[in-house]
Amino acid sequence: MKPPSRLLSVDTIETVEPSNDRSLESWTDCPAFEAHVEKTLGSAKFKEAQQQAAPFFRDVRDYVFGRPTSIENAYNLWDYMSSELVHNKTFAHRLPPTFIEQARGWADFRENAIFSDGSMAGIGNIASRTALQSIISALQRIAFNGDPLQFMLIETTYQPFISLFHQTEMIQGHPELQAIPDFGSALAIELRRSPPDSREFLRFKFRNGTNEDFQTVHVFGHREDIALTEFIYRLEGSLIHSNKEWARVCGISSEESLPNAASISGKFLEATTCMGLVFFVMLLASVVSYGVRSYRRRNYIRLQEEEDGIQSVGYATQNEKAEPALSPSLICHSGVKAPPQTPLEPHGLPNVLRPSSTLVHTSHKLRAQICNARNSAHVHDIKESLAKMYILETPHWQYATNSLLELLSDMMRRAVLCLTAFLASTGLVSKSGTADVTGPIVETNMMGYAYLPQTDIGLHMRQRSRAFIVADASNPTNRIVFINSDICMGDTGVRRSIVEQLSSQYPGLYTNDNIALVGTHQHSGVGGYLEDLLPQLTSLGYVKDTADAIVAGTVLAVQRAHNSLQPGNLSLGNTTILDASINRSPYSYLANPAEERARYEYNTDKAMTLLRFDDNDGNARGFLSFFAVHGTSLYENNTLISSDNKGMAAYIYEAMVEPDAMPGNATFVAGFTQSNVGDSTPNTLGAFCESPGEPYDGQPCDFEHSTCGNRTEDCHGRGPGFTISDFASNEIIAQKQVDGAQSLMNQTLAPVQGPVKFVHTYMNMSFRSFELPNGTTVQTCPPALGFSFAGGTTDGPGAFDFIQGDNTSDTQNPFWELVKGAVTPDPSPEQAACHYPKPILLNTGYANTPYQWSPHTVDVQMLRVGNLVMLIMPGELTTMSGRRLREAVRAELIASGVLGDDAYVVIAGPANTYGHYVATPEEYTVQRYEGASTLFGPHTLDSYIQKYTSLVSYLNPSITSEPASDPAPEDQTTKAISLQTPVIFDNAPLGSSFGSVQTDVLKTPYSAGDSVSAVFVGADPRNNLRLEETFLTVDSLVNNQWIVVRTDSHPSTVFRWTRTSTILGYSTVNITWTIEDGTPAGTYRLTYYGDAKDLLGTISDFTGHSSSFTVA
Prior knowledge:
Radius of gyration: 33 Å
Number of helices: 26
Structural class: alpha+beta
Low-confidence stretches: 6-11, 255-430
Mean pLDDT: 83
Helix content: 25-40%
Strand content: 15-25%
């Protein structure tokens, strides 16, 4: 039996057993890997190799004494022959000289095929996907100056080596690594800090066996050291972080992956009462935790030994009866001698080098040295230092106890759910509250990318507002209105109009304080509706038609929700959604403290929280879900109005519940709400250079700046459907959110208990002074945007020579230094100092001509429904900003007694006012797009945390007063200008009429997957937005009557408008329907509904029909 794998760090020396940690033997007991092995062995390549190897395996039978002789058993044969050659002289004399090399060759072939994969995150790489998690975690700790860890050693078998060589692409520059490493091989990973910017780099040194020197190898096609941040970024999407995730990857249920002791103890524990178990486990966990900590404090010692000016530091456990874990020769720290003049950091380590993590390959037959001692005296010093370094082999009873504690902990969580199940109360819920908010679908710039060429030419799906009203059962006048709208963000002017109309229609019920307007942050909707000037620039000013459509549709949605209020129940739950988002600015995220990042498994929030609405009969009437992913599945070159992944998710879910209802007419309302979205992206394949003819074409963009050839324009994120279309990616990301919501709706969720409360105030962010928790007084700043704001993101790159990550005082292009003063006023020294280290490009806080460019005052609002508190956020919080805000508010809710430990906090935004981005202070210093777009300076997040936590007490039902507020922002729409050309007139070509067919459908039958299209004589769709109506239908002939089966709200239809002559007023409309799977065979037609404007300004409607066609 081989010895267990081991991890050595400064914290402890661990024996790693599969029952408690799968990281070093993750391929065992893994059904998915076993299927991979079976597939590999059955491949054509492997069968061809079997034929080639057959003569050798036939001849070798006489030398292996009955052992199976096949390529599948090649490793065991080679292992046996190698051992016999060392220990059996007779065998060595008899064995033909070429047999050992042939055995090794076929073993290399077999193991290399099994423990590799064409995909970095493929199951064949599982050995390194789990081991790398420990390595990267150690590297991050070593890089952090405040962490005591300075050395880590992993002792394992050869399989992780092979997978690691493939996963990190070492084999590209070193094809000889596509083999089993020799016994005693070692891979040293050195963490180096490079002056002058003190960035951390990694150097990889590999020694094959014990007879060679260490050779430097390179990863990911680099020819030199790789930045630690890039190394992490490239690998993070493929890592397996936990036993639970390992079980998911392997296709094992979480119950199956628990140690046996858990299942043995299951019946007894299930019989334990809920209340007794809670208190017992809490007591036991407390005692055990205290005992373990005390034991470790008493038994850990610090060892350190210097070699060539570098200190190697570790902790070991003292136990006189334990056997030594490793021979002194197995613990060694190899490094580069620092120059004598190099200043030392607090750890006493040179700036040029931090200690390394080392991966060592050993076996039960041979232990090899990691590195050679420089001289005998040093060897003696090492032995003296390690004389007290031992490892404690964990007895089986301790494993059983650990397993029992894991199950008790799990049962405790279930017990808490049991307790909360008795705290439910009845509320009021809305049966339906959906309405159309789609503005002009042509000749209007779209909102989100701020890209002037992105002017809409038609319609893919309509935008809608979904309104949710929750009222307190004991006092129905206490209510909130949550509006989830398929728009890019909430706006002060739009919300002002909504509040005015609703408060006039329902006096005392709906007010400025309890109405929240939340945008899904989709980037494919109609633009021009925000009241401040900056977001209006690309739409050529204010587009009143867009704003009016949003206001009218949203008010209608609330009216519908109000009219369908009825008694019901609410419940709450959450789930994890993987592969629906990644971090588009991981370089900025890594600027956050290592110990803070270590608390989270992912660099974006993967949790979906769902608030379920049921009627009193237990029937689901809708839900509000909160999940962070940018609405940028559809690229900036898309010119069809749509609703991106969240609107698509709502359509899919509502259609799934009520398949016969037309979009927008379902009584079930599915709300997919945005959250701390700032640095998330749905383009989950990553960002790549699209630079035909350039050597970097198709390569990942620069990690730090997201550039290709030092320019941002070619760096584009790729969604999961990249090889098909961005619309395919959009549907994939939508479906992942649908699946998450459906999994929660299929569960019994924890009932929501408690009153309905709300609080709202205005906060002027210009030079707002406040205290941090440590007593330091800081301030926010008047609005300003940095140079990297113009660099854009990987979802929508900027132009010219602006890049992300520009936080220097040296302007990259003096031209922009001249131009920016002509666009907005030059920043004063006070403004520049306030925003430091942001180099200001647009000083919008001082730009008020012809009216205000950016908001100075933002809405701060919280809505409470029982134990759920929604933070209505006037901006885009990054992942870590959202985590800090949620955590701070939850802590205050509990500390102030407003809520107990069941307090649940979510973020919804961007809402009410668009205050741009909110990066953490650490991310702000990096000045990528998110930091440069943090409008109010480096303390923006701190200001929000201080303000939101200060308002927590107003969520207490006993508090009836209102908080102090800064003045409401001034209405900018009264000053608004628009340069958009109105519709002059429409005309039909001579001999035709509006709606007549120019290009008809085909007469041959169509099938599922085919696209049917027809071109009509058209008119400008801006003449009539057709809110709550449609520009097209697909009609089916049933019993000699035409029945509408599709509208312009179905994603299978597309409406495109083209102006063919501006002078003559000619235009055409192309209507396309892609026939879905399952479409009934029959006769169909396409219908166009339009409105034409004559020279006198009169608008008349018309209808056009294609010829009929058949679907077979």
